[in-house]
Amino acid sequence: MARNKIALIGSGMIGGTLAHMIGLKDLGDVVLFDIAEGIPQGKGLDIAQSSPVDGFDSRLTGVNDYAGIEGADVCIVTAGVPRKPGMSRDDLLGINLKVMEQVGAGLKKYAPKAFVICITNPLDAMVWALQKFSGLPTSHVVGMAGVLDSARFRYFLAEEFKVSVEDVTAFVLGGHGDSMVPMIRYSTVAGIPLPDLVKMGWTSKEKLDQIVQRTRDGGAEIVGLLKTGSAYYAPAASAIAMAESYLKDKKRVLPCAAHLSGQYGVKGTYVGVPVVIGAGGVERVIEIDLSKAEQKMFDNSVAAVQGLTEACTKIAPHLAGK
Ligand SMILES: NC(=O)c1ccc[n+]([C@@H]2O[C@H](COP(=O)([O-])OP(=O)(O)OC[C@H]3O[C@@H](n4cnc5c(N)ncnc54)[C@H](O)[C@@H]3O)[C@@H](O)[C@H]2O)c1
Ligand SMILES: O=C(O)C[C@H](O)C(=O)O
To answer: Considering only CA atoms, which residue is closest to atom 1 of ligand 2?
Structure first.
């Protein structure tokens, strides 16, 4: 059987980490693409030279021409610019929208059958624009944010309860911005919902509120510490989980920025919701029951995302007709 081909569009901090993880997990051959000459080639060669030590056979190559991604099964897009301290993700919209137009053209020409995972920020607006620029089916263009935000939520909860991260399930709905909605009611420790854990005296409502806020601020916390860019280890691990579910038809249920066509009362917008990812791409959008308060927070988050997509159509009016 032929090996999977995984193209990484953008070979910066996340792109390099992705390439390394794909090698270590032996998920397939990797093509690193970037506009910066030498960076994808150098990272590819460096990681390839670790393969005899770690015992993997992935072939890694670096390119500056989209032709190199031809026939990719999966493309993970991190091309663009990350934020620095004092910036919001939304400040990246203008610059990264131009990058999405170039990437979309490259995907359309060379990898129209790929499963595409967009990571570039501001995430929900960029994946929306990338789908339109590329013309690929909405089932095959998805955004990574919910897996990361949920992983942060799970990690903070596991720390609070002093239990294994493995036994904490949690997820975050909505856009990947300040208005994201960590779902307390649907989060558990070994199946015990968080509100029950409050009743059992494991934690307090105030402490949970602090954890929710720390989750919302999770990206900014790392940006404030790193100062030169944003998180990359956890984002890369999150995208790998999505790629693996597609490549191995695992049908994992993961929160992702998915195209909504009426679910949750939303049409034509990408926003974070639980989906099933399998060989068919996004095979199902799962509509969970929301309380009035949860629905209000979700609607508020959707409105924030729609504000950004409107801003995109002002910068690139041709997006409106796509
Ligand atoms: N969705 C999420 O949860 C999430 C998490 C972390 C980071 N991000 C976003 O991911 C993006 C990448 O982050 P990073 O830390 O890897 O940044 P980085 O600066 O390390 O890497 C970005 C790479 O993109 C390349 N690039 C720039 N313009 C390009 C173009 N037109 N075509 C191809 N390549 C181009 C750059 O040369 C650079 O190598 C940022 O926008 C960041 O905000 C999103
Ligand atoms: O916060 C950022 O700018 C990067 C990313 O969206 C994150 O959540 O880590």
So the answer is: 219
